[in-house]
Amino acid sequence: MEELYVFGTGNAQAVRCYNTCFAIKDGEEFFMVDAGGGNGILGILEQMQVDLSRIHHIFVTHEHTDHILGIVWMVRMIATAMKKGTYEGTLQIYCHPDLTDTISTLCRLTLQSKFYKMIGDRIFLVPVEDGETVHILNYDVTFFDILSTKAKQFGFTTVLNNGRKLTCAGDEPLNPDCLRYVEESHWLLHEAFCLYEDRDIFKPYEKHHSTVKEACELAESLHIPSLVLWHTEDKRPACRKELYTAEGRQYYSGNLFVPDDREIIPL
Questions:
Q1: For residue 158, what is the domain's CATH number?
Q2: What values do phi and psi take at 133, rounded to 5?
């Protein structure tokens, strides 16, 4: 059975949990999405027993620090494994066309040349266009521009091996012009910056984010069977799941998931 490996669930300023990033596990291989903002991703992968040699496909959604900087560490560690002979094949890093130079520059400025030179040799930056479909593992993954108000960002949609459609809407509220990608999804991965009752404290709208209430109302209106909420504030991590679930249940009747870091969700 495919599984959703939740590496991190926090927003950009989270200090009590890691930044939001995840992977879909299919068999022994992983399709990874973002890597958070630092080398914390390496410890999380180790704790979740995710072998780097099983990651051959990574998608970077956009340029913000909490999504892109961990990629430098992934490149470094995988390039090291390649040189040691413990990593077979190539690493494909997918992103929108404007992001390839950014990732390459970050790696060039921060990594030793012996690792940076692996880019273009066995590590490839693969630009994808809005609406383009790429075959990754056993999936046909369609990438789409979420029409971000802050920085160009792509989400994706795919159909799992069990026939269920899964859509990652990025880290901003779903733009109505992107509804065609989300419709008929069984799984929706959506941001929820804070509780609706806490909106005056965290000011999600100023940051172009939504609350639990709005994310759940959206999923309910689209008849989404399963909703995952993350990219949240982290002021009360011990009770976040309980609080977010309680508010979400008022607006959404499907299967609601508010995962913690390092949680695994069967798909």
A1: 3.60.15.10
A2: -110, 130
